[in-house]
Amino acid sequence: MADNVDFISNPKNAFWQFTTPLLLLTLFEAGYSFVDVFWVSQMNPESFFAIGVTVPILTLIVSFGRSLGIGTNSIMSREMGDNNLIGSYNSILHGIVACLVSCVIIMMSIFFLMDILTFVGADSSMDLSMQYLSPMILCPFVFIFSNFFANTLQAEGNSKIPTILLISTNVLNLVLDPIFIFVLDWGVSGASYATILSSGFSALYLLYWYLSGKSEVPINFRYFKPGIVYDIFTVAFPNFLMDSLWCILILFFNKILIEQLGQIGVLLYSSASKIQSVIISHQKAFSRGLVSICGHLFGANKIDELKDLYHYVLKITILISVISTVIFFFIRDYGFALFSVTGVPESVFYIALAGIIIVPFRGITAVTEKMLDGMGKSFYELLLTLGSIIYEISIVYLLAPIFKQGVCVLLGILVGEVTLAILYYIMLKYFLKKSENEIHHAAGA
């Protein structure tokens, strides 16, 4: 494809050419998650709380498509870097089959939805949470395939189409939300239907893009050859498990916050998470781009270029993270006011102050883990994430009797993120050095 990016010849130039559209994509993606919560927060605190406690479940639904997309992207990128196009064709077909199986599993969970909501702490808002979540559980394919195809297109070097689609999706959701919620008086169900319709538009267009032959990698089952499912899941499964572990961590945080602050604790945490998603949008863009670029370079055995690109992107990510968090610190009250979260100025102050430290370190983690994804080393990410989550839970559990008003949660996140970033950096340096030695040894032999 003439419009696609050449990742091999000039990686730094390719990085900017590829990730510039992704910057818009991730910014609007953050806005997309912003929209539902913003409109519902204008209704009443109960509706806001009902959506806030369902966040871990929705994260897992989206994670099926995102994780399978990253896994397929990693294989496709490495196959293309090695000039094995048939292997990339086969990869996407296996990913599609895995997505279909995932949809069936999610839809079956509707029979256990009340039990799941009870587990995540939605007892006091069961009816509202059911109204919001049930339609999404029954239509998982719109979220799974929109995320999956967006990732596979990026493996081809095409980031423009996913960007345009996500912007369109966000605008459509922005228009439909107030109509469904307030004009038609559907309440939280209206927010759910608006999200489904807007995401469905994206999924259908991406499917059309592939079936019409506009993509570099065709969807044609004559290329299907069993045998690479394991390779896809070595990247996809650790990513999904990591999302699951983070969801467990959120559930734990919500429990502590409810105990110490009541419903306002969850509302505060949900608002902070949505604001953070905007602040770290550049981190998501850079890390997403690195999966594809790293896969191509690693497949072509360009380890020196890989190391150089990593440090280049890391410096830019940290610089932007520091600037954005410092700016947010001075406008923090306006950000939280969007969600009608008031009466907690001291908590808002400390959240914004901690963000100046947390966000840059989270940027190190985001960039490094996607480098590892591109190299097919996702299993080691899972081990680090598991250790980090156990570490954070332990810190919060020990500090909870001492630090009240949610301060224990903030301290746990701060210490955990800093530690995880340092460990990720050490791990990637080790694998880059190991790969370099293996290539030199093979050349000498």
How much of the residues is beta strand, in percent? under 5%
Number of E strands: 0
How much helicity do the residues have? over 70%
| Count of the separate structural domains | 1
* Biggest sheet overview: none
Q: Would you tell me the overall average pLDDT? A: 83
C-alpha termini separation: 37 Å
Written as H for each helix and E for each strand, in order along the chain, the element string is HHHHHHHHHHHHHHHHH
Structure classification: mainly alpha
Count of DSSP helices? 17
Radius of gyration: 21 Å
Poorly predicted regions are none
The 3D shape can be described as globular
List keywords for this structure.
82% helix, 445 residues, mainly alpha, 0% strand
Question: How would you describe this protein?
Answer:
The chain has one domain (11-444). The protein is built from 17 helices and no strands. It has 445 residues and is mainly α. It has helices spanning 11-41, 45-52, 55-81, 85-108, 113-119, 126-138, 141-155, 160-183, 188-211, 229-261, 263-279, 281-299, 303-330, 332-337, 345-374, 378-399, 407-444. InterPro entries: MATE_fam, MATE_MdtK, MdtK-like. It is found in: Cell membrane. One of its GO terms (molecular function) is xenobiotic transmembrane transporter activity.
